Amino acid sequence: SRRSLESRSGMSGGMRQILNLGLYDGLKRAYSLRRLNLSKMKFFHPTAEEAAAHGKVLPTLALDKARATNRKRICNTKLATAEAAAPKMDMPKSDLVMGPPQISPCLASRRFVHFFPTASESKVILGDRGNRMLRFNIVDGSRYMDTLPCLHGLKEMPMVISVPPTDVHLPDGEDTGDLYIIDGLLHPHKAEVRPQFEALVWRGFPKSAVSSRFWHCDILPLPPWISHHKHGMVFGHALVDDSICFSICGAEGAGTYCFHIATREWSKAGDWLMPFNGKADYVPELGLWFGITQDNLPCAADLSGLVRGEELSPDKMRIWERDDLPEEWQPTSLHNSCAVSLGSGRFIIVDFLDVMKFNKEWNEMDAVKEFALFTGMELAFSNGKGKNGRNGASKDNGHHSSGTDCSGNESCNCSVSGNENGGKGKGVMRGLRVIKHKSHRYMFKKQLRIEAVL
């Protein structure tokens, strides 16, 4: 039997302590996996008083403005202030170094190794352009590698949906969970000869006396509604109950589709897209999903009705403005921002930014440096009093009462419009806040660049 959505969210086992980073060294043509200890970095204010004094509540952004193609980013922070608030950080040492696979260098890609997340923060899967899959783990302080089945087809832009382990996995000590891998750049009309959606699943043989289980790689179908499409882009995905929901857009149309894990059948949610770019994580304490938009803005939405075909109405989502970034810091075109869930409504937001300076000779702004900005952010309701009687309300004045009031801890009873079940599709998302805590900058050195944050 499958676990509840709260367990499957991967947040019920306490706060996450490790952030896995995949880096590429262009000089050595080598990939490295590094583990950032979050407890040493102090991305969050430790007390409610410090959060109220030094935290910042991000301003909400009207949906019509968020969707405007000519929207200009608000910059209310000076460069010196932003740099002082985000000290530079060093990368941790490498836990694994891997050279590029020995395959044809003529392949049209600069990426030969991809880093994939799993349900366990201690395990990372690496996939190469030869469709081989390696699993890295740290066991009792020792580095451990094993192999998983190869994929059946090359993925140009692989996107991985990690499904937490069930009662089938845990008796065998498998806490990796199943992995569903879809190509972010789809060619549905070629699906019969080119597998573009696959799953690495842990199971035994059906109707067999053999009780042992092991990993299998299965080819899965794409949504039948897009089978005639020549091209499609997967923009957002989210695990909703026992289904994986994908937003797919192409020249032939757009839509959101739900893949039901148990039956391996598809249903259509509607001819619209989720607001997320990439993964949206479920926050069980709030009953909402949180992620990043195509414009690199924090976003929360109630996706609970998607599997039933309910449209994602404007009163079930919220987007926040990033007015804390100075004008000299502009998003790079090479990487989109990403959010990694730590549990209890806390996230690490990673923005990839260019440092811009004015070029007098060309009379324009030039990118002179590139860096990654790591920021601790918290999604919480603050429209009532917690069980401890302390006031959890906050105003949009840059301060927030965090800690045990509305930080996602079990002692908080804040909800959407007074509904105890959090998001669950009840009314407007009144009192929902995103609180910015602390930031650190990693300046890209020589050709050492971050390729993945897991």
UniProtKB/TrEMBL annotation:
Q: What spans are recorded as compositionally biased (Polar residues)?
A: 400-410
Q: Which domain of life is it from?
A: Eukaryota
- Show the InterPro entries listed in the entry: DUF1668_ORYSA (IPR012871)
**Pfam families given in the database record:** DUF1668
Which residue ranges are recorded for the region named Disordered? 386-410
**What PANTHER family does UniProt report for this protein, alphabetically?**
DUF1618 DOMAIN-CONTAINING PROTEIN, OS12G0113100 PROTEIN-RELATED
The protein here is known as Uncharacterized protein
